[in-house]
Specification:
- It comes from uncultured Nocardioidaceae bacterium.
- By secondary structure, this protein is an alpha+beta fold.
- Helices cover 29% and strands 34% of the residues.
- It has a six-stranded antiparallel beta sheet, with helices on one face. A six-stranded antiparallel beta sheet has the order 14-13-10-7-16-17.
- Strand 5 and strand 6 form a beta hairpin.
Length: 312
């Protein structure tokens, strides 16, 4: 790597700045590093255009990664710009799912190794690029509820949001189609999740087995009804075992359509401004080169699930 553009959040606090310095010292041993702190999408777009020959490293969380990937897509540079991530966010769900070290200095060493992996992305019918995952239903309600707690409580805010949504969820009646196959038709569902990556909410494995380098999407549809089953779903969700319940369908594919009652969508941790009645998602295989650890180094996949965790 001859040149690295390191993009940081202009509003990063003192702790994040100190962590960034530790990571920066690692990268500067091997490369010429230019640091830019961006404050909005327009600023980000300008910085990327001015450094169009550099590898890009994002120092931030899932929202920062999402913003940079979409900016690169807008500039048609996804296939020509190696991308690294130094996790400095609250949730860091993409990093957790793919095994990027949460310690900034160790994450920088991963980038310094120079090893990249072809990484899948998702594009929805509005043109939005999804790096990690999208979901609707109870998960979206949890994220909406957590918005008021997250600034003060961090990851605990996600848990409070999940409890609130599980106690009084608003089910949506939708049809879910994956590669032309109807998973559910006009059924009331608690949750639909479309995963490139597996984690949400600061470490909850919402979509077990989702891997952004395996060339397929994982889709989870939950029909959990009744207060006991809903709380069972939430409890299993915290352990990554919810997909083994008999009310939960898990399938894979590359083209997903959800349509029906109005629903909000959470994309890479950010909720949509308005509800919609139809959304589609398409997988773009190997659309981006990212500095990721070898799969053998990533712990915690679906292999640990056993029949003992499933409902008869």
């Amino acid at each position: 790597m001859e040149h690295i553009l390191l993009i940081a959040n202009a509003s990063a606090g003192t702790h994040e700045q100190e962590a960034l310095q530790a990571a920066l010292s690692v990268l500067q041993e091997l490369s010429d590093v230019r640091i830019e702190s961006t404050k909005d999408a327009e600023d980000l777009d300008r910085v990327l255009r001015e450094n169009d020959k550099s590898s890009v490293v994002v120092a931030g969380g899932d929202g920062s990664l999402h913003a940079v990937v979409n900016a690169l897509a807008h500039q048609q540079r996804l296939d020509s710009t190696p991308l690294g991530l130094i996790p400095l966010g609250t949730g860091n769900d993409f990093a957790r799912g793919v095994g990027i070290p949460l310690d900034p200095e160790e994450a920088a060493r991963l980038i310094a190794s120079g090893r990249t992996t072809p990484t899948d992305l998702i594009v929805d019918d509005t043109g939005l690029v999804v790096t990690n995952n999208a979901h609707l239903g109870v998960g979206a309600e949890a994220s909406r509820a957590a918005q008021k707690w997250k600034p003060r409580l961090g990851r605990i805010g996600y848990a409070l949001g999940a409890l609130s949504a599980g106690y009084d969820p608003q089910f949506v009646r939708v049809t879910v189609t994956v590669d032309g196959r109807e998973v559910v038709r006009r059924r009331r569902v608690a949750q639909v999740a479309i995963g490139n990556g597996s984690n949400v909410g600061g470490g909850t494995e919402l979509i077990p087995g989702a891997d952004p380098s395996d060339g397929e999407l994982v889709v989870i549809v939950s029909r959990a009804r009744g207060i006991l089953r809903r709380f069972s779903y939430v409890a299993r969700l915290r352990r990554g075992k919810h997909h083994l319940m008999k009310e939960v369908d898990r399938t894979t594919g590359s083209h997903v359509v959800v349509e029906g009652d109005p629903f909000y969508v959470i994309t890479d941790g950010e909720i949509s401004d308005e509800p919609t009645t139809r959304r589609t998602w398409d997988l773009k295989v190997g659309a981006l080169e990212m500095y990721l650890p070898p799969k053998s180094d990533v712990a915690g996949d679906d292999a640990g699930a056993t029949a003992a965790d499933a409902d008869d």
